[in-house]
Every structure is written in structure tokens, then in C-alpha cells.
From TrEMBL:
<protein>
    <submittedName>
        <fullName>M48 family metallopeptidase</fullName>
    </submittedName>
</protein>
<keyword id="KW-0378">Hydrolase</keyword>
<keyword id="KW-0862">Zinc</keyword>
<dbReference type="InterPro" id="IPR051156">
    <property type="entry name" value="Mito/Outer_Membr_Metalloprot"/>
</dbReference>
<keyword id="KW-0482">Metalloprotease</keyword>
<dbReference type="Pfam" id="PF01435">
    <property type="entry name" value="Peptidase_M48"/>
</dbReference>
<comment type="similarity">
    <text>Belongs to the peptidase M48 family.</text>
</comment>
<keyword id="KW-0645">Protease</keyword>
<feature type="domain" description="Peptidase M48">
    <location>
        <begin position="75"/>
        <end position="249"/>
    </location>
</feature>
<keyword id="KW-0479">Metal-binding</keyword>
<dbReference type="InterPro" id="IPR001915">
    <property type="entry name" value="Peptidase_M48"/>
</dbReference>
Length: 274
């Protein structure tokens, strides 16, 4: 390694060490996040590239094809994303790229978001839900994890801050593969889950969606069960008994509307999927 490059890495490493010990905790659960917004974006881009290069684990639905049906499906999903992002309540609305992809796997009831706002939604979840409000609620929850930077914080806990720093400065790109494979199953603290639920409501409140749309997802699971399987979303997003009540209470506190979108439009969207 050239001396100048070595000194640059050494300086960055020392600065990050200082931040760890000198910057006060800023997350609800008292944890540290030493990464900048640009670090979130860079890590998200790397993880997204890895995800899209692994069609066996992440079989993405092509954005074109099937006589325009794929394009229509993506446009529908992007319209949901746009409504949430344009609610006026997403902190990093303009900083993060906020790209959304459909993972073609009907057996998986899940959605997740990388650092920096790369959103992945499984066809299994889309087909399981009944209304656009429910999907918007889940997507709002995932957007909140990225917007409130829970993802970076959790990756730090799961993989160690030193590993992530090595990735950010470019000295351990091989670790991106491990992170990409584990990201869909990354668990969050109860404090982070509550904040993501709250902000799902806050994001949806100014829109024409039912602000408590995420509660509809959990209510559906309670009423119908899951055909003997635990959804990946629940295994990575703990579901305390009072979660539905808390989401609906938050919608009341924010004075949000309760009107739901037409289910026929959502049924048409689902019919576009393979």
C-alpha cells in the first residue's frame, strides 16, 4: 500500500474510533451509529449490487417484459413509494435514492430496506395482502427503518462496527456478500420497531391511504393465520400483543383519516404479477 493511501485509511480509522467514544448515543435504545449519510448510501449501493447479482436467493422480477405487465406492476409499486416519500415527513427524502424492486418468490411474506433506501418487496407479501393501504403501511415501516437509520445501527450490532468501517473505506468488499444474504433476516430492537410503526403512520397520514395500514396486515395474520408458517416479516419484526392497538392509537393521536383505497385497484395490481 502506498504511504499516502495508508495514512488516509489510518486517519479515517482513527477518526471513526474517536467518534465511537466521543459522540453521544442518538438512537432510542441508546445505541451508537457512527456512519454518515454518505456511508449509508455507499453501503446500500454495495449491498444492492450484491443482491441483484444473486438471482438464486433474490430472483428479481425484470422491470420490463410480459407484454408490459412488469412495467405496470413496477409503476404501481413506485406510485406507492412516491406517495410515502412525498408526504413531507421523510427526513432523507432527497438524499437517499429510494429504489424499489420486486422479489419474485410467492413463498416469502417479507419486505426489507437496505441502508440508503433500496427497498425490496416479495411477491408473496404482495399477494397475501388485501389492500394497497396494507402494503403502503408495510412499505412505510421499511422506509422508516432506513430513514431513521435503524438498518445501519443494526448492521453494526450484527456484524461489528469494524467490519462495516472496512467496507466503507474499501478494504473488505467480500463482507458485502455476507451482509446482503443476512439483510432480509435482520432483526430490530423493540424500540426501533415501535419507531418504525409510528413513522409508518406519520408518513401515511397526509396521503390518501389509511394511516394505520400496517395494522391491517397484522390483523389479517391474526384472523387467518399463515397456513402453518411464520412469515419472515414477523420473525424479523417482533409482534407484541399490543402492536395493532399501538398503531391505531398513533393514527388517532395524529388525527389521521381512516378511509381505505379501493380494493379493486389492488386486485388488478396483483393480477399483473406472474
Amino acid at each position: 500500500m502506498k504511504p499516502s493511501l495508508y495514512h488516509s485509511y489510518t486517519f479515517t480509522y482513527c477518526v471513526l474510533l474517536l467518534l465511537i467514544f466521543l459522540v453521544p448515543a442518538c438512537d432510542q435504545d441508546g445505541s451508537f451509529n457512527v456512519f454518515s449519510i454518505q456511508d449509508d448510501i455507499a453501503l446500500g449501493q454495495q449491498v444492492s449490487t450484491e443482491i441483484e447479482s444473486d438471482p438464486q436467493q433474490f430472483p428479481l422480477l425484470p422491470e420490463t417484459g410480459r407484454n408490459g405487465r412488469n412495467e405496470q406492476a413496477y409503476q404501481y409499486l413506485r406510485n406507492i413509494t412516491s406517495k410515502i416519500l412525498n408526504s413531507g415527513n421523510v427526513t432523507y427524502r432527497d438524499e437517499f435514492p429510494w429504489k424499489v424492486k420486486i422479489v419474485q418468490n410467492d413463498e416469502v411474506l417479507n419486505a426489507f430496506c437496505t441502508p440508503g433506501g433500496y427497498i425490496y418487496v416479495y411477491t408473496g407479501l404482495i399477494k397475501y395482502l388485501d389492500t394497497e393501504d396494507q402494503l403502503a403501511g408495510v412499505m412505510g415501516h421499511e422506509i422508516a427503518h432506513a430513514d431513521k437509520r435503524h438498518t445501519t445501527d443494526n448492521l453494526t450490532k450484527a456484524y461489528g462496527w469494524q467490519l462495516l468501517i472496512d467496507i466503507v473505506v474499501g478494504s473488505n468488499q467480500g463482507a458485502v456478500t455476507e451482509i446482503a444474504k443476512g439483510l432480509a433476516n435482520l432483526s430490530y430492537s423493540r424500540a426501533a420497531e415501535r419507531e418504525a410503526d409510528d413513522y409508518s403512520v406519520i408518513y401515511l397520514c397526509p396521503t390518501d391511504y389509511e394511516a394505520a395500514g400496517a395494522a391491517g396486515f397484522f390483523e389479517k395474520m391474526q384472523q387467518e393465520g399463515t397456513a402453518g408458517r411464520v412469515p419472515e416479516f414477523i420473525s424479523t419484526h417482533p409482534n407484541p400483543d399490543n402492536r395493532i392497538e399501538a398503531i391505531r392509537q398513533k393514527a388517532e393521536e395524529e388525527n389521521c383519516g381512516t378511509a381505505t383505497t379501493a380494493p379493486t385497484q389492488y386486485a388488478t395490481f396483483k393480477s399483473l404479477l406472474p
